[in-house]
Amino acid sequence: MPPPPPPFGRARKRATHPLDPALGDADLIAARAALTQGRWTAVRELLAHTGADWDLRGHRLTVLAAAQGAAAWGEEWRIAEPDSADAAALIGCATVARALGDRRYCPEATDACHRAAALAPEDPTPWLALLLLARRRGTEDEVVRLFDAVRVRHQDHHMAHHLMVARLAERHPELGRDPLHEVYDFAAWSAEHASPDSPLAVLPVVAHAERYRVLAGAGSEPPDPAASGHWRSRRARQVLRTAFDWWLEWEERLDRGRIRTDLNYLAHAKFCEGRPAEAAALFHRIGPHATRAPWAYPDRDPYDAFHAARSAALGAA
Predict the structure, then answer these.
(1) How many beta carbons lie within 10 A of that of residue 103, not counting itself?
(2) Is 230 helix (H, G, I), strand (E, B) or coil?
(3) Distance from first CA to last CA of the chain, Å, rounded?
(4) Distance between CA 51 and CA 275 in Å, rounded?
């Protein structure tokens, strides 16, 4: 089974060096390796340990879903344990990964996710999987409905908010660098209403990167983000300062599956803003765990872009 396309933006050329979406989660990496060999019991143990940490569960299941043979081994698991909500969630996420690559699997993916949702009504993950599918294949009404279905189960759901920002950023590219674009309002509102330690504090920075992706794709921003003034407006600088200050305040308590996603966005923004010392501090925390978004924006090799920025920032610090 081929891996799914990236959840943000259009399909991009293959990176020279593949990036691991597990982001250094050692337990996830071990369970994924076991799953590719048919040992689904390792995934059962991982998800049991994950419990109701919905952000971590969503991260782990979407990564596992892209593993070779995930759907088939999930079916083996379901045969052995027909009432397992975890097995159903893995199958739902894996069939969505398949449908992202081939729309003919969309009905199967939808049915699988609804079966998983019926087994665990409190779990936002089947709805997150459907949101991943709708973000690429669905209408705006479907995206909003599914986002609400996730949010009613977990108000601060990390990946769901990122998907919503990516979709909203694509509206009205003809408006250009409009500081009042709705994606900024949505991101600011979400950050304001999140819990104090929530990584949604970085969502306004994500909104700026996603909007840059859209504008650069439309030709109204340069293809080199560091050459763009997109991160140097008064509003952008305030957003970046607020997000960086949040990170400094909460850094020692941040140990979540997708936190490196936020740190990649923030390091990218600080580098583009022309703040190499602040970017360097973030690169130290990120380590080797680069993410495709936003380093691939608008159409770059994310590995090369990440390491070029990292070398420049660390050299200037």
Answers:
(1) 12
(2) coil
(3) 43
(4) 39
Q: What does the alpha-carbon distance between residue 103 and residue 284 come to, in Å, rounded to a whole number?
A: 40
pLDDT, tens digit (0-9, with 9 covering 90-100), for 118-168: 999 999 999 999 999 999 989 999 999 999 999 999 999 999 999 999 999
With tokens 């991260």, the residue in question is 59
Tokens (6 digits) for 101: 């690559």
Query: How confident is the model over 282-286, as a mean pLDDT?
Result: 95
pLDDT in tens, 17-68: 789 999 999 999 999 999 999 999 999 999 999 999 999 999 999 999 999 9
- Alpha-carbon distance of 61 to 94, in angstroms, equals 8
What is the structure's pLDDT at 182?
96
Amino acid identity of 58?
Answer: G
User: CA Rg, the chain, in Å?
Assistant: 19
Tokens of 215: 């504008």
Give the single-character DSSP code of 38: T
The pLDDT of 204-218, averaged and rounded, is: 97
Count other Cβ atoms within 10 Å, centred on residue 38: 12
Nearest to 296 by CA among 239, 174, 193, 213: 213
Q: At what angle do helices 276-286 and 259-273 cross, to 10 degrees?
A: 160
Alpha-carbon distance of 132 to 135, in angstroms, equals: 5
Among left, alpha and beta (phi > 0; psi -120 to 50; other), residue 302 is alpha
User: What are φ and ψ of residue 91, in 5° steps?
Assistant: -65, -45
ω into 3 cis (within 30 of 0): no
